[in-house]
Amino acid sequence: MASRRIATLSRKTAETDIQLTLALDGRGTAKVDTGIPFFNHMLELFARHGLFDLELKAVGDVDVDYHHTVEDVGLVLGSAIREAVGDKLGIRRYGFFLLPMDETLARVVVDLSGRACLAYEVVAPTMFVRDFNLILVKEFCRAFSNALGCNLHVTLLYGEEPHHIAEAIFKGLARALDMATQIDPRAADSLPSTKGSL
């Protein structure tokens, strides 16, 4: 069995201070503290459903707004996955998932192409879960896609309850990434690209 793919990163700015360790080939354990309870919940779901082991401590200027913390966590998490995947030999590259969450259905598709692109089509009837604005999910996805270097397509097919909408997106992202980062034993020593590079 190949060694576990793990990354440990830190990022400190005037707005946030983040330490993160991620194991791609984990069991779905999470120890998360961002100072934003709802965001903690989403990241715990992300780890569990992707079977990623995640340790994350983020201190940010949440007294000003949640934006900087959510965006910067997206940057660090995307960077960690990029580092943990390494040379990308043998990965499946593409991943997709349709995630039902009660009345909600979200589609998440990812390509670990090395090219950052976010296509995000989510319109929710209500944009807040308590004081957490769902537009921050888009900002997280944009930062994550940029840092990882992936095509990320997120579509809300339908849904009403904002908690369910965010949950479906984070769980769907986790499942799609789990698929994309898995090693295909038939091609474990080659890149999934006809160009010879990703």
UniProtKB/TrEMBL annotation:
It comes from the Bacteria. One of its GO terms (biological process) is L-histidine biosynthetic process. The keyword Amino-acid biosynthesis applies. Pathway: Amino-acid biosynthesis; L-histidine biosynthesis; L-histidine from 5-phospho-alpha-D-ribose 1-diphosphate: step 6/9. Its main location: cytoplasm. PANTHER family: IMIDAZOLEGLYCEROL-PHOSPHATE DEHYDRATASE, IMIDAZOLEGLYCEROL-PHOSPHATE DEHYDRATASE HIS7. Belongs to the imidazoleglycerol-phosphate dehydratase family. This is Imidazoleglycerol-phosphate dehydratase.
